[in-house]
Specification:
heterodimer, A: alpha/beta, six-stranded mixed sheet, 6 helices, 36% helix, B: Rossmann fold, Rossmann fold, five-stranded mixed sheet, 16% strand
Amino acid sequence: MKQQVIVSGIGGQGVLFLTRVIAQVAVNRGMAVLTSETHGMAQRGGTVLSTIKVGDFAGPLIRAGQADLGLLLWEENLAVHQPLLKEDGKLYLNTATEGAEERINASGIARSLGNAVLANLVLLGLAVRQQVLFCTAEECETAIRQLAPQKFVEQNLEAFHKGLKK
Amino acid sequence: MKQKIELLMGNEAIGQGLIEAGCQIAAAYPGTPSTEILQAVIDRRVQAAEPLHIEWSVNEKIAFEVALAASYTGKRSVAVMKQVGLNVAADPFMRTAYLGVKGGMLTIVADDPGPHSSQNEQDTRLFCLQARVPVFDPASPAEAKELVPLAFELSEKYEMNLVLRPTTRICHSRQNVAFKEPLKLERSANFEKDPTRWAATPAFLPQLHRKLNTNLEKIAAEPALQPRLSKGDSSHPRTALVASGIVYAHLVDLLEELGLRGRIDLFQVLMPYPLNPEFSKQLQQNYNRVLILEETYPLIELQLAHPGAVGKQNGAIPREGELTPDIIHQVLADFLNLPSPQQLPPPQRGQRPSLCPGCPHRAAFYSIKQCFPKGIFPSDIGCYTLGLNLGAVNTVHCMGACISKGAGFYQAYAQDGAFTTIVVTIGDSTFFHAGIPALINAVIQQARIIVVVLDNATTAMTGGQPVPHMGVAAAEKSTKAIAIEPLVRASGVDFLETCDPYDKERFERLLHEADTYIRSEQGGVAVLISRHGCTMDPAVRKAQDSFRVTINDSCVGCRKCVEAFECPALSMDNKKNIALVNQDRCIGCGTCIPVCPVNAIIKEEK
């Protein structure tokens, strides 16, 4: 099994956390995984992109037109990062507006849970529900429990479940 | 027992590798993309089998020298920095090549091809050629970790400082990485005095230089460091691919996708300097055409001097920027006459970064720009570089340069009898790193400039490392606090004020007073410390007043809050031509309120 995933957003939206959750699931399964992340100045509210490659790969970056799945937390990144997806790649977009792609107001849902940053896990839940990610909901829950700070675990799981059951 | 495997960032893998290899002294100055290496050593220090001294040094030169002397005692040590940090540490680094080390010493220097977060994209490997220091170029986080113990062993075998050079894509990649039991070396500090070496005068240097050259020849021939060949199937006769670092990994994935893996001879170069002359000979004898892929400068290409080389020197490979998999695809297609990859739409720039909502630097920059619309604003390296977005930063160069540049601007104008208000901005960590000598120099050269020290009580850009005036060292250890004010006074500065930039009225009054002072007969350097904690720190946010900030009907759509103040929590509703507050991002600091000319930004107590 091989899968290439991009996670896109702006600094402060929890792109790194979402990247780690997905990669942790692969590690828990005993699968090889590579990610690349954006750190440094771009984290100050600029566009950030993570790539995740699950399976037998040597390098972490994804060429244009090669990603199987895109999770986009920031609508304005659509034009920037859509070219990374395969023609038949799946794209999930966090937005309150209408449009062509599969859209969900993840920030709105997250806000109702008390923190807009949880949009990252709402979007993950949606991708898992659509069975486009290599893993199951239970595996994601395990990874979230492993990685979230203790006092936020339940809130994180709640956000994930909102996406899962929307 | 099942081997422990964890998902580690490249920098964490290197940090873990340092602990496992029995490193006992680790010193660094933070800088993207290297920062998390020392942080990982701090976070994992309980695993160490023996005492471990960890420090965030005041700058890279100091970090290097601390690690160096520790190595003289026979212990393993490391200095960690980003590529431009090596420029700061260049002086001790160059001499160390001649004098050598005792206990294993590594210098880990993280390069930033792109660059993503740096002031240039210099290649540490080429620096190592000039310094005559062997350098390792790992292709993955796991390989970076594996090279750490090997590098320590060879450092001890040849008594040489060695460099491990990860790049951004290694540092900030994650991978499943296997753990090992940390080594217990049981070494006691034992400095054996040898003035002909540790204090070598010119009389002893030719012999040390000779020894260095001999060592370089020997290490180039070390079996563990020879280029690794993956044989092809002779479908591409007398053709080879040579790659090092992360570029090798990109190439492997690309060959796999194109069905070319195992079809063409492929060499991975682990140690790009010094290259074994036998490798050059082998390539010259066996191959007519060699594609050489490396970041960022053509170091392997220069050493190989192969007549059939295809690379950066003949223009086949871009000479600047990161070698992304897409670029490598095009290069490989050209080299092997494959169908060209699909033309990509020109890459688009995403959202530019900005100072965070509530950032005290924004308030300071806004006031500086308001008070001196025609001023000259030299600034420096850190989050506050983003003062660019407010038009309050005119120059950014290298750590600490802003004060000396402010003085240089002053001298050039002053000799024409001209005077412009020059306001220098420098962060607290940068001030300690390289600002103090520059401040003393500006004072004794009688420059008339305003220096604003943006004191947010942390090294914010790299994630909040401790700064000397807070009384806390690495791993939350308490230590003596070195306050900024007495240092400024002792540097000969007579005008010194401190103010929270959230207090706009007072801050601007003090800026005008500073301006009056530098223009007065007895004037010189004026220092204003802009003091407010970094709002990335939850404790700072919690301690300050917070309001629900909204915009009422009187907004006239002048865009001042969105453009001149540039808070990312504010945006324009272009249809209605009014400003909007994004409540997800607003931290309720209220610093935008006095910016509005029609008082349309209002606050309610939360």
